[in-house]
């Protein structure tokens, strides 16, 4: 496929063709799971205007700024996923499953009191980004996405400008895309 091999959890997908419109325009997706059945991820840079869902209100004080759920994607819009970065080099608390480095997925059914103080950052996502088996690979071949290894500061940093920052980090043609405006005649 490329030097990164097949898609896998802990990689970022960066939308490679700005200005096409649609949900994934200028999006950065963190892959949570990839297997022959398909791929699931969350969009890292789509802040929502919704409140934390009522059944998960206990988690609201743990959320990193901006302390609102993000729009994780257009698939399974009722699904809620949380990502968390460990506060220090320790074994993860109950309900935490490692994804990459010190970043993992948190089971939101875990009582909050069992994880208080365990995380430096927590983000919540409503909805998922999803691809059927082979679909993402096809989109990668057609150049719809650029991939790279995720960094914790990209998952928990400011969502504004994330697409541009990741493309600049990659350099080359990807860095040039980061300068594109929403108006094609100005590119």
Automatic annotation (TrEMBL):
<protein>
    <submittedName>
        <fullName>Putative transcriptional regulator</fullName>
    </submittedName>
</protein>
<comment type="similarity">
    <text>Belongs to the UPF0301 (AlgH) family.</text>
</comment>
<dbReference type="GO" id="GO:0005829">
    <property type="term" value="C:cytosol"/>
</dbReference>
<dbReference type="Pfam" id="PF02622">
    <property type="entry name" value="DUF179"/>
</dbReference>
<dbReference type="InterPro" id="IPR003774">
    <property type="entry name" value="AlgH-like"/>
</dbReference>
């Amino acid at each position: 496929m490329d030097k990164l091999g097949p898609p896998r959890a802990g990689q970022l997908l960066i939308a490679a063709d700005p200005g096409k419109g649609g949900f994934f325009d200028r999006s950065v997706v963190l892959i949570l799971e990839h297997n022959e059945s398909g791929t699931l991820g969350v969009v890292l840079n789509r802040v929502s205007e919704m409140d934390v869902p009522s059944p998960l209100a206990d988690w609201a004080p743990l959320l990193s700024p901006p302390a609102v759920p993000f729009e994780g994607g257009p698939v399974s819009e009722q699904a809620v996923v949380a990502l968390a970065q460990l506060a220090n080099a320790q074994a993860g608390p109950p309900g935490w499953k490692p994804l990459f480095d010190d970043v993992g997925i948190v089971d939101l059914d875990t009582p909050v009191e069992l994880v208080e103080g365990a995380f430096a950052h927590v983000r919540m996502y409503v909805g998922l980004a999803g691809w059927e088996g082979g679909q993402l690979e096809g989109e990668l071949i057609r150049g719809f996405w650029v991939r790279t290894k995720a960094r914790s500061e990209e998952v928990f940093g400011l969502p504004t400008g994330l697409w541009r920052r990741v493309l600049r980090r990659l350099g080359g043609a990807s860095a040039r895309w980061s300068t594109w405006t929403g108006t094609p005649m100005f590119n």
